[in-house]
Amino acid sequence: MTQTFTIIAAMDQNRGLGKDNSIPWRLKEDMVWFKAHTSTVFTEGAQNMCIMGRKTWESLPESFRPLPDRLNVVVSRNADYNLPEGVLLAASLEEALSLADNAELHIEHTFVIGGGQLYQEAIQHDRLERLILTTIWETFDCDCFFPEFNNEAFVGTYASNCYSKSLNYSFKTFQRR
Question: pTM value?
Answer without folding.
Answer: 0.95
